[in-house]
From TrEMBL:
Residues 90-109 are annotated as: Disordered. One of its GO terms (biological process) is protein secretion by the type II secretion system. Keywords: Signal. PANTHER family: ENDONUCLEASE/EXONUCLEASE/PHOSPHATASE FAMILY DOMAIN-CONTAINING PROTEIN 1 (PTHR21180), ENDONUCLEASE_EXONUCLEASE_PHOSPHATASE FAMILY DOMAIN-CONTAINING PROTEIN 1 (PTHR21180:SF32). It comes from Xylella taiwanensis. The keyword Metal-binding does not apply. This is DNA transport competence protein. GO terms for cellular component: type II protein secretion system complex. It holds the Pfam family HHH_3.
Length: 109
């Protein structure tokens, strides 16, 4: 009887750890590769994950999770389904000077 109880406890612990590890998987949509997004996100396969990366490269980092709905093939339903699996990192796009205000190098004195 003791071995059965010990086996049951071990099984429960293993299941708890497995679900915890899976639940901890989050993907930063500003830094993740297409492979990472394909692995973690629900209903996001290789082609949609590649579309996300392409959009990010062309338009800069995402400011919010909702912005994913602007990617071709991804709607708000998919965004809502994956909300708890995604995060938007603090990485910001490099600042670009306003048109006509480019910095010019100054010679040394």
């Amino acid at each position: 009887m003791k071995s059965f109880a010990m086996s049951l406890k071990s099984l429960l612990l293993l299941l708890a750890l497995a679900f915890t590890a899976h639940a901890a998987d989050k993907v930063d949509i500003n830094t993740a590769s297409a492979e990472e997004m394909d692995r973690v996100l629900v209903n996001i396969g290789p082609s949609k994950a590649s579309a996300i990366v392409k959009y990010r490269q062309e338009n800069g980092p995402f400011k919010s999770v909702e912005e994913l709905a602007l990617v071709n093939g991804i709607g708000m339903k998919t965004v809502e389904r994956n909300r708890d699996l995604m995060e938007v990192g603090a990485r910001m796009a490099p600042a670009k000077p306003a048109k006509g205000t480019e910095l010019k190098s100054v010679g040394r004195r």
